[in-house]
Amino acid sequence: MFSVQFILRNWYRLLVKMQQQLKCCFFLGTILIAFFIICWDSRRERTFYQQTASSLDLTHLKMRQEHRRRIIRELCSASSSVNFTEKLIKFDQIPNKALDHLIVDDLHGVIYCFVPKVACTNWKRVMIVLSQNLKAPDGALYLDPLDIPRKIIHNSTLHKTFNKLWRRFGRYSRPLMHHKLKNYTKFLFVRDPFVRLISAFRDKFVKPDEYFYSHYGSTMLQRYANISKPPDSAKEAFAAGIRLSFTHFIKYLLDPKTEEEKPFNEHWQQMYRLCHPCQIEYDFVGKLETLDEDTEQLLKILGLDDYIHFPPGYENRTAVDWEREWFANISVADRRKLYHLYETDFKLFEYDKPETLLDE
Questions:
Q1: Overall average pLDDT of the 120-135 stretch
Q2: Dihedral of CA 136/138/143/147: which sign?
Q3: Residue 356 burial by CB count (10 A; 0-12/13-18/19+): exposed, middle or buried?
Q4: 151 vs 125, 134, 175, 207, CA distance in Å?
Q5: In the chain, which end has fewer C-beta atoms inside a 10 angstrom radius, N or C?
Q6: The pLDDT of residue 321
Q7: pLDDT tens-digit series, residues 20-54
């Protein structure tokens, strides 16, 4: 009898203990389920907001592109108050040589108008990778734009341009050009005109550059620095402490004799004269000031965002807030003349008129 009572009592205790454990497990399970539901809802909410933000960003970028393109269309129309060379001419009236900045990639159906001093080195790298017409020393095609040696990027033989179409096909080239312009995706990148000039001067004249010294620098020194016999080379000039100033460069640009003798070099030629936006309706207008966003958007439009990694920008890039310092020794009268010279670029590509520089 005693043993039966003992067994029953222990059995009861065991049942009570198991019931307590079940309650504890149920309580813990309820907490875990509630935590999972909260995390799931939070994740769904975060995903929803991320998708919404991404959608809003995409909408903003599309609207920005349409706005840039619309401004160009409006200013290029016959009814606009902006008048400039080339505005109303037809595409077929543009000399073939003036089409040398239009790089064509037939493989992907892309046309890129390169503007010097506007990330064109990296975009040329991308075009070389896309064209698949250049092999590395080991015989493999270049797949990463950064792998392409800088010294060969600007080699004109590597790039297929509209001007080369004319050289190859002669009078049959224009129908080919029209076909490509109609069916290919066309893009260009632009930059604040005054900042681009500063960048060009820094790149070509602040450090010794034999080509630019012999073709342009020595002439500037003769005409605007009162040096009747400049040194024969940039190396000799720098060794003698003879440097071209930004003021000399601006004088050169404003001198009517400059373009009477030969066209502007592409590094300071007006952007609209390089890319002809009134005759070519570009599908995408990028800006150096929004390079990262524009590049990401463009690569997605081209379907190349998983294939091409755009090289990072130059860390020592000329900035807009440098303008006041660089133009400090340029007279207000010359600043206004310079603005007039590049006014079409300012307006077509919607850059603010530098009022503080022009009204001092």
A1: 92
A2: negative
A3: exposed
A4: 11, 14, 34, 17
A5: N
A6: 77
A7: 665 565 656 556 565 555 555 555 445 444 444 45
Are 49 and 43 a contacting pair, CB within 8 Å? no
Neighbours of 224 (CB within 10 A): 17
Q: Give percent of the chain above pLDDT 90.
A: 71
Tell me if residue 249 falls in helix, strand or coil. helix
- Nearest Cα to 278, choosing from 63, 81, 74? 74
**Other C-beta atoms lying within 10 Å of the C-beta of residue 213:** 25
Taken as a whole, the chain contains a residue count of: 360
Determine contact, residues 303/294, Cβ cutoff 8 Å.
no
What is the pTM assigned to this prediction? 0.83
Sign of CA dihedral 74, 78, 79, 82: positive
pLDDT confidence tier of residue 178, bands split at 50, 70 and 90: very high
**331-357: pLDDT as tens digits:** 999 999 999 999 999 999 999 999 999
Would you state the pLDDT for residue 85? 83
Beta-carbon contacts of 156 under 8 Å, excluding residues fewer than 6 positions away, are 100
Looking at the DSSP assignment, which residues form a beta bridge with residue 105?
110
180 CB-near residues (< 8 Å, 6+ apart): 104, 106, 111
Contact in structure between 136 and 286 (CB atoms under 8 Å) = no
Can you list the alpha helix ranges (DSSP code H) found in 116-212? 120-131, 150-153, 162-169, 173-183, 193-204, 210-212
Pairing of strands 102-105, 185-190: unpaired
The amino acid present at 105, given as its one-letter code, is: D
Please tell me the chain's helix, strand, coil percentages from 3-state DSSP, rounded to the nearest 5: 60, 5, 35
